[in-house]
Amino acid sequence: MVSSQEIMQLLQSLIWLLAGVGVFIIGMNFMSDALERSAGTGMKRLLERISNNRFSGVGIGAGVTAIIQSSSATSVMVIGLVNAGVMTLMQATPIIMGANIGTTITGVLVALKNDYFNMAMYALAFAGVMMGFSQKEKVKIAGSLCCGLGVIFVGLNIMSSEQAFGNPLVEELFTAIFKTINFPLLLILVGGIFTALIQSSSAATGVVITMVGAGVLPLDLALFIILGANIGTCVTALLASVGANANSKRIALIHFTFNVIGTVLFTVIIWLFRDPIVNVLVSVFPGEDPMSLQMRVSLFHVIFNVTTTCLMLPFVKQLVAYSCTVIREKKEVTEGLSLKYVDERLLSTPPVAFMQVKKEINYMISLAEENTRLSFAAMETGSMEHNDLICKNERMIDFINSELTGFLIKLSAEVEGSEEKIIGSYFHVLNDFERIGDHAENFNEIGIEMINKNLSFSEHALRGITEMREAVMQMFTIAGNTFATVKKEKLSELTQLENRVDTMKKELIDSHFARLAEGNCSVDVSPYYSSVIVGLERIADHLVNVGYSIVSPTGSQKEGK
């Protein structure tokens, strides 16, 4: 009979276990953030290489997941990109497959824990030195990485300590539990539920590996729990697809189906050939020390994900077709506006969110440029054929400004340092192009009003407006390219064009009033002419702000210098 003292000891040990799991997850998140910050540019480059090549897709998925240390986070990010229309199902499916390979790195890392080499102590010591004695951002990021790594091993040490898995009472408890559920399907269910609850297959795998190393969980049972963990990790992606479009739901279904097929296949194989498989793993890592025991589980985890990916990769088209059959597109077509490249789910991966925000702003730039060009058609040709398109574009410009501002506010809470300055500059750029859109709309309204009143500019006036407009359109090209490429080479040319526009404004206004005084220009046309000239000059000012935003958050030329 168990005494009350033993029950208290058991409860304390279970609390230590939970503490160890909690510390482990905190360390993973800390390390993931540091990796993301240090490898943000690399992750952007990987995602910019997205193509229809399924092999490169697997590589991208594995690489991104290795960086952020979470296949669930990669899945959510991919769902966000699919929902934003940036990625097709055919492109996303191999990336999801590769994510399963990338997540095995955590298992290998956990398995390398050695009682004779205190990784936690050394990692935290390095972290203290780098974060405490250096002000350089790169060194501090490296310190954060070491800190996260150290905290991971602290969590592992807590779980394998005498207060936790090292307690004989805990060992007896888990031995009894696993004897009770010693059935493959039950073990898979346990792995799936546990992973779904903590929403991290890496953490679940780490716990299983630690249990095997502590001698609490037999290897043959651990294999089935690992299989279940691969299904449990799909829950995060399935939840992320709620409220998204049909394609996003399809990619979540593909992720789930892919892992279920792999789990079913390996369950049958292990069920039939359990002893030979265990013997192979033991022969690769002989010995009964904790590291050898742990490496066997880690090796199986790698074999499972690599093999499943290799087997399913030729059937990407079939998986996509299956998902389209199960989840059909809604027939009703909505007129609602939506962002083209940005999705709320991308907030979990700030480097990717930054990349997509820039694409959205570039799209806004193209709309503002198109409206500025089209708005002169009514004045120059007396035609209203572009009115509907201009109004549609202006609604989209206003929508992007509003929605992207809200998104950037949320993103600013996820970043620090230089990235905060970039967000600040994006706020100003959004405001500049929203104002440019307003000026373009005003030009269109002027054209419509002049058509309704049967008014037109004189040939001389129209020639001056056209010359000024062409200079402004040159500024559009330079400012847009400068913002997109973050290259300063054309900034001086942009400034020269703005000075030229300022000079033209003064000359055109002066000559206009001279013509009025001589009676060579209609008084009825005068306010429209002045409004167009002033509006073009103000657009030029905004475009200079956009160009200089790459060197100064406010777009100020003085700050830029």
Describe this structure in words.
This protein is mainly α. The chain folds into 2 domains: 39-113 and 160-326, no CATH class; 347-560, Up-down Bundle (Methane Monooxygenase Hydroxylase, Chain G, domain 1). Helix content is 79%, strand content 0%. It is elongated, with a radius of gyration of 31 Å. The mean pLDDT is 84.
Please provide the ordered H/E string of secondary-structure elements: HHHHHHHHHHHHHHHHHHHHHHHH
Report the portion of residues in β strands.
Answer: under 5%
The general outline is elongated
* Total number of beta strands: 0
Oligomer status: single chain
What is the residue-mean pLDDT, rounded to a whole number? Answer: 84
For the biggest sheet, the summary is: none
Number of helices: 24
Count of structural domains: 2
Considering DSSP H and I runs of 4 or more, what fraction of the residues is helical? over 70%
Distance between the termini: 81 Å
Query: Structural class of the secondary elements?
Result: mainly alpha
Rounded radius of gyration (Å) = 31 Å
Uncertain segments are none
Features:
2 domains; 24 helices; mainly alpha; 561 residues; Methane Monooxygenase Hydroxylase, Chain G, domain 1; single chain
SSE inventory with pairings:
Layout: H1 4-38, H2 40-48, H3 54-68, H4 71-83, H5 89-102, H6 104-111, H7 119-133, H8 137-159, H9 168-180, H10 184-198, H11 201-213, H12 219-232, H13 234-240, H14 246-272, H15 274-284, H16 290-312, H17 316-326, H18 350-381, H19 387-412, H20 418-452, H21 459-485, H22 491-518, H23 526-548, H24 557-560
